[in-house]
Design goal:
The strands form three sheets. This protein has a seven-stranded mixed sheet, with helices on both faces. Strands 5-10-7 form a three-stranded mixed sheet. The protein is built from 13 helices and twelve strands. The relative contact order is 0.16. The longest helix has 30 residues. About 50% of the residues lie in helices and about 15% in strands. The protein folds into two domains: about 130 residues, no CATH class; about 220 residues, Spore Coat Polysaccharide Biosynthesis Protein SpsA, Chain A, CATH 3.90.550.10. By secondary structure, it is an alpha/beta fold.
C-alpha cells in the first residue's frame, strides 16, 4: 500500500507540473497575435446544422458579423422541417447584408451525416477558400482574418483552431463540460502543438477547394466518425502542413444532465483512444486532484498525502483562474467542484477502454482507425 501511495503521489506531482504549464501556454498563444498583414481571399463558410441546438442563433450571429471584406455563409440541413431553418431565418433578418445560402438536401451517401451535409452544401459555395465551422462555434470578429493569415503561410494545406468551452446554462453540468474544454483540452492541444503534433481539430477546418479535391473530397470522409482526423491526415500525406490560426473561438456546451455530458465526453474519449492510443493513455496524468485523492486513501490519510492533495487543489484553482484571465472569459467552475471534474475525467478514460460504440446526434456508430490510401499522395503545389 505504501508503494501504491507513493506511485499515486508521483502521478499527482506530474499532473501538478502539467497544470502549472497550462496557463503559460495559453498566455503565450493569446499574446502572440500580430496584426493581420496577409491577402484576404473571398471565403465560403460551411455550417452544417442539425436541429435548434442551444445558443445556435448566437453562434451563427458571430459568423455573420465578421470583419472581413468578402465572404459567404452556407448553412445546410437534411430535412425541410429541421427547426434550425427557423433560426437561420431570424439570423438573416438580423444580418441582411450577410450573404447566406441555405441548402436542404437529405442525400446521405455515407454513414457520417455531417459529412453528407457538407457534400450537399459544397455546390452552393461560391469561393475557393472553404472554412468548415461547426454549428456551435462562437467566433471573434477577426476569426476569418486570422484563418486567412494562417492559410497564407507557405506549404500550409489546412488551418484549424483551438477553442474554449461556453456553457449554455448555469448548471453544474455545463460548468463541468466547459471546464474540460477550456482548462483541459485547450492547454493540452497547445502543448501537443508545441511538441510537434499537427492535428486537425474539427470545430474549425479551413482549406482551399483544390486541396479538398486533391485529397479525395468529402467523399473520402463519408464513413469516418473522426472526419477531421482523416482530413488532416490526408492533407499531411500530401506534404502540406496543418496551421493553427491565432484565434480562440468558443464552442457551446449544451448538456444540463451529467449522463448526457458523460456520453458526449465518452464519444470524444473513445475516438481519441482509437486515433492516438499512447497520447490518450498519457492523458490520465492531467488530473492531479484525482491522483491526490488516491494517494490520501492509500496512505491512510498521512499528512504528506493530504498536503500534496491540497497543493494540487491550489495549483488547479490558480491555473483555471489564470487561463480564464488570459482568455478574457468569466470563471465557470467553482473551486470545490474541481475534484469532481478530475474524477469524472478519469472515469471517462476508463470507460473509453470498455467498448467502441458511441452515440452521436441520434446515431450509434463504431469508432475505428482510419486508413489512408496505400500509395503516398504526391504534391505538386509550391
Amino acid at each position: 500500500m505504501v508503494l501504491l501511495a507513493l506511485l499515486a503521489a508521483l502521478l499527482t506531482t506530474i499532473g501538478l507540473t502539467l497544470t502549472l504549464a497550462g496557463p503559460a501556454l495559453v498566455r503565450g498563444f493569446v499574446a502572440d497575435r500580430p496584426p493581420v498583414d496577409a491577402p484576404l481571399p473571398a471565403i465560403s463558410v460551411l455550417k452544417p446544422l442539425y436541429r435548434d441546438e442551444a445558443l445556435l442563433e448566437q453562434a451563427l450571429g458571430t459568423i455573420c458579423a465578421q470583419d472581413y471584406p468578402c465572404y459567404q455563409v452556407v448553412v445546410g440541413v437534411q430535412q425541410p422541417d429541421d427547426p434550425a431553418l427557423a433560426v437561420v431565418d431570424r439570423v438573416r433578418r438580423r444580418y441582411p447584408a450577410c450573404d447566406i445560402a441555405v441548402v436542404v438536401d437529405n442525400t446521405s451517401p455515407g454513414s457520417n451525416r455531417k459529412v453528407a451535409n457538407l457534400e450537399n452544401m459544397l455546390a452552393a459555395a461560391k469561393h475557393d477558400v472553404l472554412v468548415i465551422a461547426d454549428s456551435d462555434v462562437h467566433a471573434a470578429p477577426d476569426y476569418l482574418r486570422r484563418i486567412a493569415a494562417a492559410l497564407a503561410e507557405p506549404r500550409t494545406g489546412l488551418v484549424t483552431t483551438v477553442y474554449s468551452g461556453l456553457p449554455a446554462s448555469g448548471s453544474l453540468t455545463g460548468a463541468l463540460g466547459a471546464s474540460a474544454i477550456t482548462h483541459g483540452f485547450l492547454p493540452g492541444a497547445l502543448m501537443a502543438r508545441a511538441l510537434g503534433r499537427q492535428d486537425a481539430l474539427g470545430a474549425t477546418m479551413a482549406l482551399r477547394r483544390e486541396t479538398l479535391a486533391a485529397v479525395g473530397g468529402f467523399a473520402a470522409l463519408r464513413d469516418h466518425l473522426a472526419d477531421d482526423n482523416v482530413l488532416g491526415r490526408r492533407v499531411r500525406a500530401r506534404g502540406l502542413a496543418i496551421g493553427m490560426a491565432a484565434t480562440v473561438p468558443a464552442t457551446t456546451v449544451p448538456e444540463t444532465r451529467l449522463a448526457d455530458l458523460f456520453r458526449h465526453e465518452l464519444r470524444w474519449g473513445r475516438t481519441i483512444r482509437t486515433l492516438a492510443p499512447i497520447a490518450f493513455a498519457a492523458s490520465v496524468l492531467q488530473y492531479p486532484l484525482a491522483w491526490g485523492l488516491v494517494a490520501v486513501g492509500l496512505s491512510g490519510g498521512e499528512e504528506w498525502a493530504i498536503a500534496l492533495f491540497g497543493a494540487a487543489w491550489i495549483a488547479r484553482a490558480w491555473a483555471m483562474a489564470a487561463i480564464d484571465h488570459a482568455l478574457g472569459t468569466r470563471p465557470v467552475l467553482r473551486p470545490w467542484h474541481m475534484p469532481l471534474r478530475d474524477l469524472m475525467s478519469i472515469a471517462v478514460v476508463a470507460a473509453s477502454y470498455m467498448g467502441s460504440r458511441v452515440e452521436w446526434r441520434g446515431q450509434n456508430m463504431r469508432v475505428g482507425t482510419p486508413r489512408l490510401p496505400a500509395e503516398p499522395l504526391g504534391i505538386e503545389q509550391a
